[in-house]
């Protein structure tokens, strides 16, 4: 902890430069808060100090309050670990203090970092510094007076937008909005800030206390209107979460009763939010996501990732073109290999459409789009892959075809080239069977659309080298994915864990429960859509193929529902042809298609699993549990077999790969909040009533009976932990 400190240097000009040291992001840990108070008090009292400059060491102002403290509070329930910063430090010591202060911002000022800067009397920033209040994304809300000062500096609607979206703006935009007083090159940041602070002291520049400003917040009725619109929006975009509405209430308090009252209410509501389940889930996901980059025996053995400049993508279909797009967007040279010019053209067009789509949605500037497009070259021959550093095969799920491709690329590509496959189901050992270089064979499992979905599941076999894993992790990060390293098994971690999701839904329907009720309950729980709408979206062909694969790997627990086949026979193919469980029409929301009901009846007749031939009676909560507890059960097997490094990797994978609600902390975190005991007893009961699909796994049974959380690391690896 030696590097965690606040220093103060007083120059001959009479400016005290107070610097935060807490690498890597200068998080505001408890000792930093104490250090700031101490140095500020000293600067205020010293006669040789005329003004203060606050800055952060190492090119980053501050990444905000130390999130580890939230985690401690979550672990202990002891809210007194949160220091009183808003009034004691920011209002009394800084903003209302006797010496003017300027924040010198470089790199980033987020959350508490930006809020300290708002408590200063001016803000000078280097170009392209990130400024934001991302607290809602952690289930809390801006503290340290941020909810009050930001609207007073930049106006209510923009401030509300910044808080509600948790997205940072750049210092250039901050300057336009009035958040930043001047932008200067990094090399001059301290010099200009010192002079600015002296200018305030000598009244050549305004001594602005933002909490007292009123000119930007508009009239009460205008403010009411902005807040009303914001409330309506977050009811749609932030379902099941309390922090957005709580934050709007706190902003309103300040509008009605004045900034200082707003600060007091903010401090109180902040504490309530820290203790919420939402905050527990989101903070867990924050750290879990960062933990995925630590893989034992890969990232801790002194290896360095090698540069991957050029990648060949084999196959220009939906996945291949998406992967090529993701690579090109991050300035990697791509060779897109197809088998004939017609397919190649299609693939190239798909990449272009992906990139143009980003431009149309204002997510990418035109010049960057042109550069990205110029990174991709088409090829019809494997000889064009002779100088690539990595190959990602993304052809159809056909074993002989994949085996042939791997033998060919092994011959053509350089000996260091990583040989990756984007298969979502096939065993990597089978794909690489005919190659000699088994240490270079690896899975790069992207989720569709590959240029948008953030998860990259990296699959390793017993033979994959640590270097190959590290290299693919680095590529994943470079293309802005979150790589999660997993072991080799049918469906790998994500698809395997979520296979029972649609299975459970099909059992329920065949037991007599209404499809639309199931979808509605799952959406209410927080997934973007229910299992039937998802099946419509991914297409029935995928459902059939995946069903076969899992059916043969896990025959003891696969439910064979005839429903999909019946739907296909009746000419339905989900969203693809506009007819599924729902009707799809351009520009309209999907609507239930009740003409599907007789087909469902036919499926029920064929499976004949309704006890006494009558639909079962289940509550809404039980519907959610009958679908998600089998998912937890499979996740337990994945943990037991050591397919993931740690339980929280499955949380991240479920959130980023399956859109499991992040505010529930991911599948295992959520399961632990529900309790292994309840899950075990429910599954046991259903397995007795409805069969083996629900049978609790050995791991779940053991954890439930011993009262050990599912997320707790295994003390001794079980016999089956041999895959990694
Ligand atoms: C009272 C206040 O209103 C409440 C608050 O301020 S709450 C905090 C608000 N701040 C935030 O939400 C910012 C969170 N941090 C981030 O978004 C990103 O870390 C960042 C943009 C600052 C940097 O991103 P990047 O360079 O990719 O580095 P990243 O890997 O994320 O972080 C580096 C390390 O810093 C840690 N870190 C980042 N921000 C932190 C914070 N606020 N507190 C504690 N640790 C933090 C990360 O956990 C990581 O640790 P590790 O190396 O041990 O895994």
UniProtKB/TrEMBL annotation:
Domain 3-hydroxyacyl-CoA dehydrogenase C-terminal: 491-584, 626-704
Subcellular location: Peroxisome
PROSITE patterns named in the record: 3HCDH (PS00067), ENOYL_COA_HYDRATASE (PS00166), IQ (PS50096)
Keywords: Fatty acid metabolism, Isomerase, Lipid metabolism, Lyase, Multifunctional enzyme, NAD, Oxidoreductase, Peroxisome
GO biological process, one term: fatty acid beta-oxidation
Catalysed reactions listed for this entry: a (3S)-3-hydroxyacyl-CoA = a (2E)-enoyl-CoA + H2O; a (3Z)-enoyl-CoA = a 4-saturated (2E)-enoyl-CoA; a (3E)-enoyl-CoA = a 4-saturated (2E)-enoyl-CoA; (3S)-3-hydroxybutanoyl-CoA = (3R)-3-hydroxybutanoyl-CoA
A single Gene Ontology CC term: peroxisome
GO molecular function: (3S)-3-hydroxyacyl-CoA dehydrogenase (NAD+) activity; 3-hydroxybutyryl-CoA epimerase activity; delta(3)-delta(2)-enoyl-CoA isomerase activity; enoyl-CoA hydratase activity; NAD+ binding
InterPro entries documented for this protein: 3-OHacyl-CoA_DH_CS, 3-OHacyl-CoA_DH_NAD-bd, 3HC_DH_C, 6-PGluconate_DH-like_C_sf, ClpP/crotonase-like_dom_sf, Enoyl-CoA_hyd/isom_CS, Enoyl-CoA_hydra/iso, NAD(P)-bd_dom_sf
Pathway field: Lipid metabolism; fatty acid beta-oxidation
Domain 3-hydroxyacyl-CoA dehydrogenase NAD binding: 310-488
Classification via SUPFAM superfamilies: 6-phosphogluconate dehydrogenase C-terminal domain-like (SSF48179), ClpP/crotonase (SSF52096), NAD(P)-binding Rossmann-fold domains (SSF51735)
Superkingdom of origin: Eukaryota
Any single Pfam family the record assigns to this protein: 3HCDH_N
Family per record: In the central section; belongs to the 3-hydroxyacyl-CoA dehydrogenase family.
Protein name as it appears in the record: 3-hydroxyacyl-CoA dehydrogenase
Species this protein is from: Anisodus acutangulus
